[in-house]
Design goal:
Shape: globular
Structural class: alpha/beta
Strand content: 5-15%
CATH topology of the largest domain: Rossmann fold
Amino acid sequence: MKIAVVGTGYVGLVTGTCFAETGNDVTCVDIDQQKVDKLRAGEITIYEPGLDEIFLRNLKEERLKFTTSLEEGIKGAKIIFLALPTPPGENGSADLKYILGVADDLGKIMQDYAVVVDKSTVPVGTADKVREAISRNCSVDFDVVSNPEFLREGVAVDDFMKPDRIVIGVENERAKKIMSELYAPFLRSGNPIIYMDLRSAELTKYAANSFLATKITFMNEIAQLCERMGADVDMVRLGIGTDERIGKKFLFPGIGIGGSCFPKDIYALVTSASEYDYNFKILNAVMKVNQVQRLHLVAKMKKYFNEGLAGKHFALWGLSFKPNTDDIREAPSLYMIDALLEAGASICAFDPEAMPNAKNYYGSKIAFAESQYEALHNADALIIATEWNEFRAPDFQKIQNRLKSKVIFDGRNLFENSAMTQLGFHYESIGRSPVN
C-alpha cells in the first residue's frame, strides 16, 4: 500500500519506518531540507533503540523515501498520516496550526480519494476541523480518521510492531476497510483493533496518558507519606501492585513526570475540560503535585547542607526524562539544575544519550563529563535523576574515591538502603528512610 507520512519527528519517523517494514511503500514529508537530506543519506535523526536497523534496511530496499514536497509525497497515497507537532498554545490547549496548515494544503493538491489520518495527539473535535480545512479547496472524496499513537520512548519499535491494542476513530466502512488492511500484519498475536467514533478516539489518548500520570503521581504522594511515617514505599508498592485490579506498572515513585507527552497532555485535557465548563479536579491536583515532586531532592539537599547550597558542586547522573531516549523535554533533571544554579551551586552532568540536547539547552551554564565517573570529580554529592541501566550497579569504590564526601541523592531508588548502610554512604531516596 502507498502511504504518506507528513512530519518526520519522533512519531512520524517511527510510524513511517515500521509501516515500510511490513512491505508498504512509504514516503515521509518534512519541510526541513537539512533533516530530509540526512535521512536520505541514512543518518537517523532521533535516538530510539532498534529503529536504526529497520530504518536502514527499508531505505536500502527503497520502501522508505523522504521529500520536502507535500505534492510529491502524497501522490498515489491511499493513506496520508499527519504526524505533526501539537505544542501547547497560549491557553494550554494543543496548537493545531501545523496540522490545519497541512490540511489546507492537502485540499488544494489531492487528486484521488485518500484516508487522512490524525496520528498526532489532538484535542477532541480536531478531525472535524481537519475535514473542514481540506474541504474548502478539495474536489475529490476523502475521509478523516483518528488513530492515536501509544508509543513509549525507548521501546517504540516494539510498541508499534507488537501493539497491545490499536484505536481507530472512523465514520464509514470504506475508510474502516482500508485501515483494517493496513494494520492486519500487526494483529497476528490476537491483540485487538478497536473501532470507535472520532471524538472518542481523540479523547482516548488524553485519557490514557492522564491516567498513567495520575497513577505515578499517586505513588509520589504515598512516597511523601512514607518519608514522614517511617514506611518504605517499595514495600507499599509491592503490596498494592500485586492486586490485579491495580497492577504493577507505573507504581514507581520518583522525581516527577516529564517528557513530551504526559505534562503536555494533562494540561491540554484540563484546558479542554474547562472549555466545556468542567473543572478536572484530579488532573489539576496531579499538575500541582508534580511541580513539587520535581524539586523534592533539592529540598533534601538544602536540609542536608544546612549552611546553604551556594558554592557546592554536584555530580548529576541522568539528563533525559527517562532511560533509552535523548529526550530532555520537561525532564525533572532540568528543574533541579535550574534550582541548584539559582541557589549558587555548580553542576557536572553525564548522560549516555541526552548530553547533545542538554548542551544546546544550557550551553556553558553547567559542565558535562565524558563518563559517569568523570562527573564525580571533587563533587560534594552525587544526584541521580534518570534510571539508566549503567547507573544501577556502579563501582562504589570509584564513587567514594572521586566524591568529596560519600553522599548520594537518588531520585530513582536505584540502590538498596541496606547496601548503602554497609558501604557507609549518606543516602537519600524517594519514599524511604534516609541512610545516615
